[in-house]
Amino acid sequence: MNSKVAKLFDNGAILQSNIQEDDVFSMIEEQYGKSSYGTVKYSSNEMYWIGYIYRYFCFTYDLTSTQVYKVIKPKQLRGLYFAYHTLDPAQTIERIIEANDISIFDKYDIKKQYELFKKIRGKQ
């Protein structure tokens, strides 16, 4: 979540490029090197779904990869895979937020409202 690739996703630069899946893996290996890290191996379907949920979470709530990673860990998402992988991603995220009683969004909404308030007040 702290890789250069994650930052490209977060700032939207990845959308302006013609980068392929293999290129993404090459960039990660270039930055961190090849790894056989970890004893728990995820299936390709689990990895795809977890990555998709993380990205969807980032885009829909306008959060960075690191912020979303702090809210929900891959181990928890893996545990939810069989129950939630057929749900709409928005429903999945809503259920995760409800189940974890996540309050990061309250702070985020207040900050966003304050910025909007300052913008409106500045124009009057």
**How many helices in DSSP terms?**
7
Percentage of residues in DSSP E strands: under 5%
Mean pLDDT: 84
**Structural Rg:** 17 Å
List the uncertain runs: none
Terminal CA distance: 41 Å
Number of DSSP strands?
A: 0
| Shape assignment | globular
> What is the string of helix and strand elements?
HHHHHHH
What does this structure look like?
The chain is mostly helical and 124 residues long. The chain has a domain at 38-123. Helix content is 71%, strand content 0%. The protein is built from seven helices and no strands. Helix 3 (44-61) crosses helix 4 (65-71) and helix 3 packs across helix 6 (89-100). The chain starts with a helix and ends with a helix.
What key phrases describe this protein's structure?
124 residues; 7 helices; globular
Give the SSE layout:
Layout: H1 4-11, H2 21-32, H3 44-61, H4 65-71, H5 74-84, H6 89-100, H7 104-123
Summarize the structure.
This protein is mainly α and 124 residues long.
